Amino acid sequence: MKKLALIALLATSGMAFAHSGPSSSSSSGPMINDDSLQVFAVKNSSVTNSATGNKTDAKQNISSNSGKVQVNDDQIQVTLVKNSSVSNKATGSDTSASQNISSNVGNVKINDTSTQVSMIKNSYVGNLASGHKTKAVQNIASNNGCDTCQ
């Protein structure tokens, strides 16, 4: 795992810092006009997100794009988790839990190469929605065009 992570980071680090082009936003959402590198690494830790109450949403985005996002160059999303816990939980009536790890969710447009890597070892990754009329959506190293799953 260490070798692959190091290779991925070394291979992408030159790309990530080779340019410093602008990003902008419009009425449609954020626009990234240069290379995009999203990296999250955790070891021997816990990352917890929760929402409690009626009509609440727990949204956890790690190395991810969510909503209306446009990337006009290469995109790399890397998540490294070892001996850790990554959890997202929504509790109550009419709640939702959305957990996205190294993913694109919603109306995300990538106009070049997209690489998504999630390396998870000896760890727990969980997403839970508990209660009446609840919804849980989990995306790991994936693309999901669902506009209501953000």
Strand sequence of the main sheet, in spatial order? 1-2-6-10-14
Query: Kindly, what is the distance between the CA atoms of the first and last residues, rounded to a whole number of angstroms?
Result: 30 Å
Query: Biggest sheet, open or closed, and with what strands and sense?
Result: 5 strands, mixed
Helix share of residues?
10-25%
Low-confidence spans = 9-21
Percentage of residues in DSSP E strands: over 45%
Tell me the total number of β-strands. Answer: 14
| Rg of Cα set | 16 Å
Overview of the structural elements:
Helices cover 11% and strands 58% of the residues. Residues 9-21 have low confidence and may be disordered. The protein has one helix at 2-17, and strands at residues 23-26, 29-32, 36-43, 46-52, 57-62, 65-71, 75-82, 85-91, 96-101, 104-110, 114-121, 124-130, 135-140, 143-144. The chain has one domain. It has 150 residues and is mostly beta strands.
Provide a brief overview of the structure.
The chain is mainly β. The protein is built from one helix and 14 strands, in the order αββββββββββββββ.
